[in-house]
Amino acid sequence: MTAPMTTRRSRRGRSLSGHSSRLWFAWSLLRSVILTSAAVLGIVCVLVFGVSFAFGVRPLIVLSGSMEPTLPVGSVVFSRTVPAAELAVGDIATLERPRGLGLITHRVTSVHDVDGTTVDVTLRGDANATDDPEPYAVDTAGLYVFHVPYMGTVAMVLKTGYGIGFAVASALVLIVVFLLDPHRLRHPQAAPLGGGASPANAGGATTARTGEEGR
């Protein structure tokens, strides 16, 4: 009866070992996906904003739907500053609105030179049926280069208390995921303590003392 019991225990041990190995493999795969995704996202953000600033391109968040579907609400628009005289019909431009009302990003429908530097630019949103109420007299403008959908929404959320909390929690999770290296957890390197005896030496010392007691 001893042999069958030993066989069953051996099979159970192999089964548990195989299950544990699958769990470690799954965690290793999930960890790689999380860390790789975070790294790729970080690299993309650095490249987008680094290249934009290096080439004098500034980011702006789209707050209204007047340019949909071309520029969805929450997108980040990157534009570069150019002389207003370089604008052409069909361009997407960002201009200063009069009376300090801020910026507006619409499509150019007409351009009229005033004095060689200042031009009157008429704009219209792609979602609007008519032009803006009045032309904009400007000498420089932001000319659309590209946009990233929904990046502005993420940026605005991260400015809130909940967004900051989420960012901090995400950073902590990434740190924990990074530290839980499956290889190190499965194969910890136990360094011997200074002055400690090996099992063999310890056994020998015990035998010697026992022998002395028997004398």
From TrEMBL:
Keyword Protease: yes
Organism: Microbacterium hominis
Membrane topology: Single-pass type II membrane protein
Region Disordered, residue ranges: 190-215
Low complexity: compositionally biased ranges: 198-209
Native organism taxonomy: Bacteria, Bacillati, Actinomycetota, Actinomycetes, Micrococcales
InterPro entries named in the record: LexA/Signal_pep-like_sf (IPR036286), Pept_S26A_signal_pept_1_Ser-AS (IPR019756), Peptidase_S26 (IPR019533), Peptidase_S26B (IPR001733)
Enzyme's top EC category: hydrolase
Protein name as annotated: Signal peptidase I
CDD domains: S26_SPase_I
Alphabetical keyword list: Endoplasmic reticulum, Hydrolase, Membrane, Protease, Signal-anchor, Transmembrane, Transmembrane helix
Enzyme Commission code: 3.4.21.89
